[in-house]
Design goal:
The protein is mainly alpha-helical and 90 residues long. The chain has a domain at 25-84. The protein is 67% helix and 0% strand. It is built from 3 helices and no strands. The chain has helices at residues 18-40, 47-57, 59-84. The longest helix has 26 residues, at 59-84. The protein is rod-shaped and about 70 Å long. 1% of the residues are buried.
């Protein structure tokens, strides 16, 4: 098998910062088809390989990722707007 991971910059998916979660959602939305190709390149008939191929085949996953990405962008914009607002107390 050729090195399907060459020149890939994967984001750190385990993070506690808002911006990082947003980047991960955006990354996997954009790269879903490539990730699917990687999973389909797995060889073998073990249950783990078969289940991974079956799970990644569902087009609904891409639709869900797009929904998450869209919500993350909108929510992220609102958080940035709120954080940049200066509040005064009386």
């Amino acid at each position: 098998m050729s090195n399907v991971f060459s020149n890939q910059q994967f984001p750190e998916s385990l993070s506690h910062r808002w911006g990082s979660w947003r980047k991960v959602a955006e990354y996997y939305t954009k790269k879903f088809r490539h990730v699917r190709e990687i999973v389909h390149s797995f060889e073998g008939t073990e249950q783990s390989v078969l289940k991974a191929k079956e799970a990644i085949a569902a087009e609904s996953h891409l639709e869900s990722l797009r929904d998450i990405d869209e919500c993350c962008i909108q929510l992220g914009n609102e958080i940035q707007r709120a954080e940049s607002t200066k509040y005064e107390t009386a």
